[in-house]
């Protein structure tokens, strides 16, 4: 579990995060959503240790990041996997070389151990006959699978995903969402996903943190978000006619169940 307590982050005269307090639960897909400029990317970067909060604390299973020494912070970083928005694969490396890169950089595993682990995660994310291919030779959806495989190859406790469905068609996005959810549950990872994709919210939103202008405006799960009367959430979620219809149908069903 990651616990955030009263996080404040300021850039110059602009306060981007204004006292965020929340929890990201282990074994669940935790989503951060909000409009552009709401602070969700800054919050994600604070969780990753890229930005240092001006005040407040972030703890990883009881370990307060600000209290850790240099070696302890390095150890913590080895427990983190990251799926970047654009996959961020090395163009000159094959699929298996991309996936094995963290093991070569951060472990003392032998070549045979690395090969076995790489093949295991390749099989886990259903990458078929792709080991020797370059990123340019596979589809966008397969590139995302490679990025996920690389992120989990070192058995992370914490998995961070920045817009994992960016650039993907709706069908492939659902496949990637479900893969992340399966891995999170299977390996009991604390997964935090920064997203603007409402389809992801509907599919895998087990714990949703909604930010508005640097403030935690609402928190709940995918069923609760369609029932809330929070005006900021309603304005954000139901900006499209599709989700307005979903909300109307959900509320009607709830009334029928009561009757």
UniProtKB/TrEMBL annotation:
User: What organism is listed for this UniProt entry?
Assistant: Flavobacterium agricola
Q: Name one Pfam family in it.
A: ABC_tran
Alphabetical list of InterPro entries matching this protein: AAA+_ATPase (IPR003593), ABC_transporter-like_ATP-bd (IPR003439), ABC_transporter-like_CS (IPR017871), P-loop_NTPase (IPR027417)
- The answer to keyword Secreted applying to this record is no
Which Gene Ontology MF annotations are present? ATP binding
Domain ABC transporter, by residue range, is 2-238
Q: What is this protein called?
A: ATP-binding cassette domain-containing protein
- Which SMART domains has this protein been placed in? AAA
The answer to whether keyword Transport applies is yes
Q: Kindly state which keywords UniProt assigns to this record, in alphabetical order.
A: ATP-binding, Nucleotide-binding, Transport
Instruction: From the UniProt record, list the coiled-coil ranges.
Output: none
């Amino acid at each position: 579990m990651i616990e955030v307590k009263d996080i404040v982050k300021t850039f110059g005269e602009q306060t981007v995060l204004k006292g965020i307090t929340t929890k990201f639960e282990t074994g669940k897909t935790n989503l951060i959503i909000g409009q552009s400029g709401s602070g969700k990317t800054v919050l994600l970067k604070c969780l990753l240790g890229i930005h240092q909060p001006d005040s407040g604390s972030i703890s990883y299973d009881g370990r307060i990041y600000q209290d850790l020494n240099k070696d302890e912070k390095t150890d913590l970083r080895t427990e983190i996997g990251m799926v970047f928005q654009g996959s961020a694969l090395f163009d000159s490396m094959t699929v298996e070389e991309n996936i094995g890169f963290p093991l070569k950089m951060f472990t003392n595993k032998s070549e045979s151990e690395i090969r076995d682990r790489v093949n295991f995660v390749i099989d886990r994310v259903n990458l078929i006959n792709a080991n020797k291919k370059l990123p340019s030779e596979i589809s966008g959806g397969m590139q995302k699978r490679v990025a996920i495989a690389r992120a989990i190859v070192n058995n992370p406790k914490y998995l961070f995903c920045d817009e994992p469905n960016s650039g993907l068609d709706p069908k492939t996005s659902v496949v990637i969402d479900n893969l992340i959810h399966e891995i999170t549950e299977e390996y009991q990872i604390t997964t935090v996903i920064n997203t603007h994709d409402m389809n992801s919210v509907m599919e895998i939103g087990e714990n949703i943190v909604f930010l508005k202008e640097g403030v935690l405006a609402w928190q709940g799960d995918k069923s609760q978000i369609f029932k809330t009367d929070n005006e900021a959430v309603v304005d954000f979620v139901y900006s499209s006619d599709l989700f307005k219809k979903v909300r109307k149908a959900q509320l009607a069903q709830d009334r029928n169940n009561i009757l």
